Amino acid sequence: MDVFKTHACVTNQKSPAQSVFSEEGNDTNNNQVWNKAQTQLLIRSYQLLEAKVSQGKLRKKSMWEKISEEMREKGYNFSAEQVSGRWKTLIRAYKNIKAHNAKSDSSLKTF
């Protein structure tokens, strides 16, 4: 999505609240908090692989596994399921803020 090219995590601005995951995984830390650097890496990795998924050259499950492996190489221990869940959380937060800002009587929120 184009919105993540200008997101606070990518442009090194202040980031919104961090998200906590409590999904189970054999080789991952449960209840680990995603920090700004981890979220930035996820967004950048997604940007690089998303075109292949759109073209049908790569399945989403494989993309999440590749991103998880890249994060492991950088020292972040998240499973493919946790990476996918974090992405879904980012998208949901973005959509909620966009819907909130579309209401005329709402104060402006930023993502």
From TrEMBL:
Pfam families: Myb_DNA-bind_4 (PF13837)
Residue ranges occupied by any Myb/SANT-like DNA-binding domain in the UniProt entry: 32-111
Protein name as catalogued: Myb/SANT-like DNA-binding domain-containing protein
Record organism: Dreissena polymorpha (Zebra mussel)
